[in-house]
Specification:
- There is one protein chain.
- The chain is an all-alpha fold.
- Helices cover about 75% and strands about 0% of the residues.
- It has 21 helices and no strands.
Length: about 325
């Protein structure tokens, strides 16, 4: 494991991606033959062979799975996903159905699930919207409307409280903003001073400068702002947010700050909390492992090992069982020693 930590931590992300090919754990299947896969899936569903379903669908990229689904439709005159629903159940069903969604469809469904019914899952809303790029958010917003004939922004307005609502809407709307971040020292200092001024002692803290700055600047700029803020305020941004704000707004700001600092570290903590929860919460596990498996799950594994002194793979082995375990381990990829 040491070699992996050293390699990923000492080289820039762009160089690491070039070295590894991708920071995801699911790579394009080399000897890909969609017709063969489609026939194998059809036979596996007839025989209720869940292991084969897991083996194929967790070892293909999302683009390859979409091709398999198209070929399956032409061969059988049936849709693949309804067939999977009939054969599968529980956690393994959730994993494989999630893998059959395109990334923006998966995120749209996660967001809708977080807001429909009684109560709102603020943690899910914040984690998804804080860890997606403006381009991804634009796709998610359009996909949400296509999937549910509803406006994501309007649902956020109606299902969240003021402050937290303003933060989420600013994240969604940043796709339409053209305010560039920067690394020039005067701009860094100006942003840091604005944040310090907004949380003066003995005065009501103002969230507007925090929301505006954190959603209108890029990560490199903001990390410099955070350092400048600490030198001016004498405490970290996280400590300040924890003390100055409360409720859902505090939750959202802390998630956003952690995402800006180190997204894989934030996601590793999400997975750890899910595995330590009662009954191992499947939602957060899916929210990380499914969409990040082709993006940066190697980095999440590195952070998990660093934070908890053991690999994500072995932790999953102990925490979950059966076919659900097989699916999660396949996405995780390998043991880190």
């Amino acid at each position: 494991m040491d070699y992996l930590l050293e390699a990923l931590e000492t080289m820039p992300v762009t160089e690491a991606a070039m070295c590894w090919g991708t920071l995801g754990t699911v790579r394009p299947f080399v000897n890909f033959r969609p017709e063969r896969d489609a026939r194998a899936l059809a036979a596996a569903m007839t025989n209720k062979d869940v292991n084969t379903l897991v083996r194929i669908l967790t070892n293909r990229t999302n683009a390859q799975r979409q091709q398999v689904a198209q070929v399956y439709r032409s061969l059988t005159n049936q849709e693949l996903v309804p067939g999977l629903k009939k054969v599968l159940s529980g956690g393994v069903q959730a994993v494989l159905l999630g893998l059959m969604m395109t990334p923006p469809v998966f995120d749209a469904h996660q967001l809708r699930n977080a807001m429909e019914g009684l109560g709102t899952d603020e943690q899910t809303l914040a984690e998804i919207l804080c860890t997606r790029s403006p381009e991804q958010l634009q796709l998610i917003t359009a996909t949400y409307r296509e999937e549910f004939q509803r406006s994501l922004e309007e649902d956020v307005r109606s299902e969240t409280s003021q402050g937290f609502r303003d933060l989420l809407l600013a994240l969604l709307q940043k796709q339409r903003e053209n305010i560039a971040g920067g690394i020039e020292y005067p701009l860094i200092q100006r942003d840091a001073k604005a944040l310090v001024e907004s949380v003066k002692p003995k005065s009501k803290p103002s969230p507007e400068p925090w929301i505006r700055t954190l959603t209108h600047r890029d990560a490199d700029h903001l990390n410099r702002v955070f350092d400048c803020f600490q030198s001016l305020a004498g405490r970290s941004v996280e400590e300040t947010v924890q003390a100055a704000f409360s409720g859902d707004l505090r939750l959202g700001l802390l998630i956003l700050v952690r995402s800006i600092r180190n997204t894989p570290e934030l996601l590793a903590d999400t997975v750890h909390r899910a595995l330590k929860g009662v009954g191992q919460q499947s939602g957060p596990l899916l929210r990380v492992l499914v969409p990040r498996s082709e993006e940066d799950l190697l980095s999440v594994r590195v952070q998990f090992h660093r934070q908890h002194g053991r690999s994500l793979y072995s932790t999953l082995q102990e925490a979950v069982k059966g076919e659900y375990q097989h699916a999660l381990l396949a996405l995780c990829g390998a043991e880190d020693i």
